[in-house]
Design brief:
Blueprint (H helix, E strand, L loop, with lengths): L11 E4 L11 H9 L4 E8 L5 E3 L20 H4 L20 H11 L2 E6 L6 H15 L8 E4 L2 H10 L5 E5 L6 H7 L4 E5 L5 H9 L3 E5 L4 H9 L4 E4 L7 H7 L1
Parallel strand pairs: 1-2, 1-9, 2-4, 4-5, 5-6, 6-7, 7-8, 8-9
Antiparallel strand pairs: 2-3
Length: 253
Amino acid sequence: MALTGPWPYPLWVAHRGAGKLAPENTLAAFRLGAQHGYRAFECDVKLSADGVPFLLHDATLERTSSGQGTASLLEWSALSRLDAGGWHSRAFAGEPLLSLDAIAAYCIGNGFALNLEIKPTPGDELATGRKVATEVARLWAGQAVPPLLSSFSLDALRAARDADARWPRALLLDTLREGWFDEAKALGCVAVVTNHKVMDAAVIARLHDAGRRALAYTVNDTETAQRLLAIGIDGIITDAVDRFSPAAASAQS
């Protein structure tokens, strides 16, 4: 999808919801981010064994749930019964894993924007990219602002494009490897999202000159945020939802 007109996504994006103050990628985290004024959120999506897209960062379950082993080996009926909040703190015990259906309903119902990071379990890149694109078509049909589909996986982005090219895509980069710009261009990406450490004025200028946008992750200190705002960044993904006020920071930029 080639976005036309003004960039439709808010400048400030809450990483995994409010993924440090609450259990990441859960509805509790999204709600907490919203309480702090955030209207755009980033989250990670992968597939269950029976092909249900759901939110989880890791390939395995141990770090952020009561489950064990590789998440993609379990069907959604089993995953949905896990505790995805107790690992964070007692206040969030019993918080469930989220399906893509559930987070779509929450964001659409509240008018929130979403950066969906396609985070496939290794080996599931093509299936995950295809499924996310087709489910976005179903869930966001008729919505003015679609999710931004991002990924580190070229295969996942390619599969998403081939399944339904209408949805805007972004290439995620931890480093500026040789050929990164050509990769983004070949995939029809509307944006590139990099580690904040490698985002600079030259990168932003190159993207802007090509009609693309520049975003950076994960920005948690004021000095880095101010540097990026000064050079024209289009999106800042942060864990520090309690330190950065989106409304105040946007007004200053």
